[in-house]
Specification:
Layout lengths: L5 H5 L15 E7 L3 H7 L4 H5 L17 E8 L2 E7 L3 H8 L12 E6 L7 E5 L5 E4 L18 H11 L16 H17 L5 H5 L5 E4 L4
Antiparallel strand pairs: 1-3, 1-4, 2-3, 2-7, 4-5, 5-6
Helix pairs in contact: 5-6
């Protein structure tokens, strides 16, 4: 059973804590057409550990160094994904290598929804020819400060989905309490990404820590 992605955005600011799994502050990185174990290894995981992983709820998270990540990982349709709290290891690797290596091979696609150092979600989409589009909460992928190419129409498609969902500020319908605007935009952003890319993840298993887990060392 899967539950889309909107629930992740809904709890982005909630600060809700669950005992064994994840609920708030979840950063998602997903790649299309890559084996989940292979993707975890690219992010720094030990292959043997990734091939025989414990459940997240059973992982001794206090044993890893401060700054490292303990990630849940799995597959959803054509996508393999990792889930981390507060920041994405993929984004850290990208920044550490100054954009020269995004951990993707030819023809592979990626999407990342990351909290990183900001309170708001940052969305990044890499298409099958290696072009990159990114934006902050409420931003259009097609109206960023840095012009993006879109030979495949990937960014236009996601941007249109975000606009239909009201996740771009000029299509956002507003909310009763202005203080809830960021949380509502985050919910709509996660929902749009899930619907456009066909990504739906199991909320119960994630909250209860019932997905496999792997240690990802910090690349910085």
């Amino acid at each position: 059973m899967t539950d889309g992605l909107a629930w992740m955005g809904e709890h982005w600011y909630s600060g809700a804590v669950v005992k064994d799994g994840m609920l708030s502050d979840i950063s998602l990185t997903a790649v299309r057409g890559v084996d989940p174990v292979d993707f975890a290894v690219r992010l720094g995981a030990d292959r043997t550990a990734a091939e025989h992983p414990p459940l997240f709820k059973d992982f001794d998270r206090l044993s890893v160094d401060l700054g490292d990540s303990v990630a849940m990982f799995g597959r959803a349709g054509e996508w393999s994904y990792v889930l981390e709290v507060e920041r994405s290891t993929w984004h850290l690797v990208l920044l550490d290598r100054l954009g020269q290596d995004t951990l993707l091979g030819p023809g592979e696609e990626l999407v990342c929804l990351d909290r990183f150092l900001d309170e708001e979600p940052w969305v990044c989409r890499v298409d099958a020819v290696g072009e990159v589009g990114a934006g902050g909460l409420g931003d259009s992928l097609l109206e960023s400060a840095v012009a993006v190419e879109d030979r495949l129409g990937t960014f236009a498609g996601l941007d249109a989905a975000m606009r239909r969902a009201g996740a771009v500020r000029d299509t956002f319908p507003g909310c009763e309490d202005p203080e809830d605007e960021a949380e509502e935009l985050a919910k709509r952003l996660f929902a749009a990404v899930g619907e456009e890319l066909g990504l739906s993840l199991p909320r119960r298993e994630i909250e209860l820590g019932l997905l496999p887990a792997v240690h990802l060392p910090s690349p910085v």
